Amino acid sequence: MFHEFELFHSAEGILLIASVILFFSIFAGKAGFRFGLPALLLFLGVGMLFGSDGLGIQFSNPNIAQFIGMLALSIILFSGGMDTKVSEVKPIATQGIILATVGVLATTFITGGFIYYISILATGYEALPFAESLLLAAVMSSTDSASVFSILRSKGVYLKERLRPTLELESGSNDPMAYMLTLLLIAYIQVGGMNLQDAVLQLIIQLSVGAVAGFLLGKLAVYIINHIDIDNESLYPILLLTTAFFTFSVTTLCKGNGYLAVYIAGLVVGNAKIVHKKSMRTFFDGFTWLWQIVMFLTLGLLVNPHELLPVAPIGLTVGFFMIVVARPLSVFLCLLPFKNFSVKGKLYISWVGLRGAVPIIFATYPMIAGIEHAGTIFNVVFFITILSLLIQGTTVTQAAKWLGLVDEPERKNEFGIELPEEIKSAMSEIDITPAVLAHGNRLMELTLPDHTLAVMVKRDGLYFIPKGNTELKENDKLLMISDNDEALLQAYESLGVTDYTLKKN
User: 2-400: which CATH number, 1.10.3210.10, 1.20.1530.20, 1.10.287.1700, 2.40.50.100?
Assistant: First the structure.
């Protein structure tokens, strides 16, 4: 047991144990990708392994867990906003927002009613009041698509029908709604009632302030980053991280929804032209993964696995109801007016609405608030999260294949080069085929538009810079840069080039 060792009570010992746990988590995540398991499930498992019922690390402070969760969610949502392309999201923005708002409300009331009903019928359990049943449902109403996409990417699976941007938008924007519902229901339970008009007004104020603050502070961040002119490039990601935390805290203090604000701010920053964007994306990708691991481990340490067994029957019942009834019903109702999703697409959206770390974090709020059945709520939420990840998380890829929703994969970037956004040009990669070589096997013999350069060749895994008399061979990969993408595409057509990529600034 760790708590029996003297090193656990020293700073060096704590650092040693923390590094060991992180090592375990990373290797567990690697194994999870290989076998199609969500990384979240394995990180939680590692936390439980090292916890009180495992190797003996004693951690039972929901306040610390909530604080860590708040920091992690701010970073995750900001990074998620940065990775979301407005051009992809715009066509399905209405559907995604409806799923994130009306869908959360529908899931909460459908599931809450079911929980209230079965808690009365179940023997051996104390019946939950209707308000606490709704609270339990609200805590579980947000989805986590990050795990879905990590699995799909690891398997090289791409989705049809704009399913990916829809799920991204829903996942990024439904956390604020679930958060507000959780807080409202806690306040309702504590004071014994609440005016419906006041509750609706509070929801509108939080959403409005959060959206406006996120947009304005995102624009401010873009302006500052492009005009501050810091000599040390490494400080730009730190500046952006500071902006994310500032956005969350200021918005929350102004009675707005901080989680919505950081997501929108990230969306604004990610779709704007800013200096050093690539290095900042790289920083945030790594930093986001670090905080996800820390958050999942903390939640795994917080739970006592032996307390999950008593709630297993009700957890299984509610979990299967959410997966099979509540989630599909809310999705189909929300998407009923829209015709751009097939029945199979709606079924897939329903199936991949798996629960992640966010419901567990939100489950700490009733504990801190001193709600009567807070312990039961936390354990049921934790159990259902594990159930959802085991059932839905492990079948993400197979479900897409069964439903015929697997799309052709995007062409891989062979050179891994990105042009700074301030350079107005187009970068393209082409395959050298017999059709291309028929026009000549030397670079100078290819008819290319003015202001177009062939800057690099990949041959048999090796890279080199070509010259005019460089002899091209079949299966070569050629990297082109041009300031006239239309003329370049016309040249490709005349040369018989059919397999190419094109990225414009």
Answer: 1.20.1530.20
